[in-house]
Design a protein that fits this description.
Number of domains: 2
Helix content: 25-40%
CATH architecture of the largest domain: 3-Layer(aba) Sandwich
Number of helices: 12
CATH class of the largest domain: Alpha Beta
CATH topology of the largest domain: Aspartate Aminotransferase, domain 2
CATH superfamily of the largest domain: Type I PLP-dependent aspartate aminotransferase-like (Major domain)
Distance between the termini: 62 Å
Structural class: alpha/beta
Largest sheet: 7 strands, mixed
Number of strands: 15
Shape: globular
Bound molecules: pyridoxal-5'-phosphate
Radius of gyration: 21 Å
Order of helices and strands: EHHEHEHEEEHEHEHEEHHHEEHEEEH
Length: 360
């Protein structure tokens, strides 16, 4: 008999937002914070070009893409690393910094991949309490000790939709031991219209102990192509390049991302669309005593505590009509809440009509 000995770790597998309902062919997927407007028509045109070279390896350094990022975001080309989704960059950061028994501090309701990749490399994950589903600097600082190597925050945070203000983020960096890496995940930064907010990238372009994560999966609508990037000191980037898989970002993803950055009109349209519908849906749901966070990213975190129905009842009812939300019980262990992604106009109207039907 063969006895293979697996490494031991205590991980709950990542459960993505569901995309199917049994027996229904067509569904409306509002469960994964994808782009409401799909992708830019310019990108669509580019990737349907039959002459794309796919039999050769892509540029392992994603040079053209990094140049385009550096130009768009006014940041240093040499301090950018691209990944197969920001997901892969999170994984590489954990591989680069964490030894077994090192500690990572995460706000209790943070994006699930931080805990998963930290645990895979043997680190101990320590959760800091949130206050009303908002990250608390005080609570993070309480959990930090000599073994802490990294603090991860997503700002705004998924799944809670709450965010730290510019002032609070600066305070966190200031009060945190300078030898701890602060990772700020800006996945939803482009959607933010709130005047007291500033993205991690805007605040910390030249800080050696802050690392920024960015993605093309949200506002740019390239979730399926898997492309994201990280921004940090030259020292960190050089070391990440030592462990990076050689051709991690495929050619189509690189080309599409460059084109996506150029289409500023599409991005602005997406931002406006999101802001309009997030506010409209928020107000609409309040009529049924379903309350949510201040509008921030491309999703709402719905609270059913005051509602006539439980989140589970609401979820199942919508599901039976082919509309899928994200249960926050899966992975996050948050009861009586749901996460709703803002969809296209048609999807949002269908959602609102279906909700009316459930209550009226
Ligand atoms: C906060 C946050 N970070 C990272 C990601 C992953 O993005 P990517 O598709 O670039 O791996 C997500 C996806 O939902 C997210 O919500």
């Amino acid at each position: 008999m063969i006895t293979l000995k697996f490494k031991k770790f205590n991980i709950e597998a990542y459960k993505p937002g569901k995309s199917r309902v049994k027996k229904l062919r067509k569904v409306i997927k509002l469960s994964a914070n994808e782009s409401a407007l799909g992708l830019s028509p310019k990108v669509k045109r580019l990737i349907s070009n039959k002459k794309l070279i796919l039999d050769k390896y892509p540029d392992g350094k994603s040079k053209d893409l990094r140049k385009a990022i550096s130009k768009t975001y006014n940041c240093n080309f040499e301090k950018i690393i691209c990944g197969a989704g920001s997901d892969e960059v999170i994984q590489m950061i954990c591989q680069l910094f964490l030894n077994p028994k090192d500690e990572v501090v995460l706000p209790e309701y943070s994006f699930l991949m931080y805990r998963i990749y930290s645990k895979v490399v043997g680190a101990k994950v320590v959760f800091s309490k949130e206050i009303n589903f908002k990250i608390s600097i005080k609570e993070i600082l309480k959990k930090v000790n000599k073994k802490t190597k990294i603090v991860f925050i997503a700002n705004p945070n998924n799944p809670t939709g709450t965010y730290l203000t510019k002032k609070e983020v600066l305070e966190l960096r200031k009060k945190l031991n300078k030898n701890i890496l602060l990772v700020i995940d800006d996945a939803y930064a482009e959607y933010m219209k709130n005047s007291d907010y500033s993205s991690g990238l805007n605040l910390f372009k030249n800080k050696d102990n802050v690392f920024i994560l960015r993605t093309f999966s949200k506002i740019f609508g390239l979730a399926s192509l898997r492309v994201g990037w990280g921004y940090g000191s030259k020292k960190i980037i050089d070391r990440l390049n030592l462990i990076k898989p050689p051709f991690n970002v495929n050619r189509i993803a690189q080309l599409a991302a460059v084109e996506a950055l150029k289409d500023k009109k599409f991005v602005n349209r997406s931002i406006k669309h999101n802001f309009f519908y997030a506010n409209k849906i928020k107000k609409f749901l309040e009529k049924y005593n379903i309350f949510s966070n201040t509008v921030s990213a491309n999703f709402l975190f719905l609270n059913f505590e005051k509602c006539r129905y439980s989140s589970n009842f609401f979820y199942q009812k919508l599901k039976s009509k082919g509309i899928i939300l994200r249960s926050t019980k899966d992975g996050y262990h948050i009861n009586n809440r749901l996460r709703l992604t803002i969809g296209s106009s048609k999807e949002n109207l269908k959602f609102m009509n279906t909700v009316k039907g459930i209550f009226d």
